[in-house]
Amino acid sequence: MTHPNTPKRQKSETLEAQKEARQAGAFRPRQGKQPTAGMETLVHVLGRGIICDTDHRGHPTPQGRSPSEIVLDASEGFIPLWAADTVLRWRFRERSMDYFEDRAAAKAEIRNLFADALLAWGSAAPVTFKYDDDLWDFEIVMRSSDQCNPIGCVLAGAFFPDGGRHELELYPKMFTQIRKEQVDTFTHEIGHVFGLRHFFANVSEAAWPSEMFGRHDNFSIMNYGALSELTDVDKEDLTVLYQAAWGGELTHINGTPIQLVKPYSAQAPDRSVVVGQIPPALRPQAAPQSRSKAAQPRSAQSRSKAAYLDGQ
Fold first, then answer.
1. In angstroms, how far is CA 181 from the centroid of its own chain?
2. Which end of the chain is less crowded, N or C, counting CB atoms within 10 A of the terminal residue's CB?
3. Using an 8 Å Cβ cutoff, are 89 and 232 in contact?
4. What is the rounded distance in angstroms from the CA atom of residue 304 to the CA atom of residue 312?
5. What pairing do the DSSP bridges indicate for beta strands 138-142 and 87-92?
6. pLDDT of 236-290, one tens digit each?
């Protein structure tokens, strides 16, 4: 099938080429920072030569089996899920961004990838994200060298729900992939942040228990290879899971208790004492806003990319 080479199509192709070129420039390593290959032995393969490092404790293949429900982390003897109204505060680890020739451009493009992944999860996301340089729950960290073995190279690694401080790691190999693969990688890693394991975790990682929840569907962003695609079933099951857990209707899954956890920032002292923060009582009063310029409520559909990353 051929497509007519219309002005509209030409414009679309030109814009796409410009986006790819801009991104390629943004992710150019600083001189002397070319990645070197390290070794990682216990990893999981998501596709040909593509590895996720979050579930690094298991084996590289699902041993011929393909579990196809949401798989939840239970490695601590309970299933950790985020408490209702959780806000995860994040920032860049600035010194790690020195890997890039143009730090500002790279950070802007990483924010775009992150935002596109959150847009993909949409209203199913059980938490909101807010950029915060002072009181943070996780940092986005750029590694200066790849983690590779004969199976493939790690693209990224994330974390599961708990009250500590964490890293969302990015590796140089990720930025050699096409943009869709980069967005899918972020989408996959955000799934881990929500508490999801790889679909084959209960097969290959018996020493680190997991539990299954949801419907049967081979396609899932938490699956691997050609089956690694975000689906409506992924989002619907995640929504049902969290709504039932928050409402007290679901307290155990297959006999394993659910524990709702709060992030580090929610357990920290009053933010007014954080260095660099002005206590609310000492903040200057905002100038009154004219009625004509008053902010209007926005629908969920109108939220911008920035809104997903900055808690708006």
1. 13
2. N
3. no
4. 9
5. parallel
6. 888 988 999 999 998 988 788 999 999 999 997 765 444 455 555 555 555 555 4
For domain 20-57+68-267, give the CATH superfamily. Collagenase (Catalytic Domain) (3.40.390.10)
| Cβ atoms of residues 65 and 218 within 8 Å | no
Strands 152-157 and 166-170: antiparallel
Give the model's pLDDT for residue 255.
84
The domain ranges of the chain are: 20-57+68-267
Which regions in the chain score pLDDT beneath 70?
1-25, 31-73, 198-228, 270-306, 308, 312
**How confident is the model at residue 295, as a pLDDT?**
37
Q: What is the pLDDT of residue 152?
A: 83
Q: What is the pLDDT of residue 229?
A: 77
Closest CA to 182 of 106, 229, 114: 114
Going from the C-alpha of 48 to that of each of 177, 218, 243, the distances in angstroms are: 12, 18, 36
Q: List the one residue out of 22, 35, 311, 4 whose CA is nearest residue 172.
A: 35
If we measure between CA atoms, which residue out of 29, 236, 223, 21 comes closest to residue 121?
236
Tokens of 305: 């990319």
Q: At what angle do helices 179-193 and 103-121 cross, to 10 degrees?
A: 60
176 CB burial (10 A radius; 0-12, 13-18, 19+): middle
Question: CA angle at residue 23 from 105 to 6, to 5 degrees?
Answer: 135
Report how far residue 270's alpha carbon sits from residue 272's, in angstroms, rounded to the nearest whole number. Answer: 5
Q: Which residues of 238-268 are buried (b: 16+ CB within 10 A; e: fewer)?
A: bebbbeebbeeebeebeeeebbebbbbbbee
Residue-level pLDDT at 12: 59
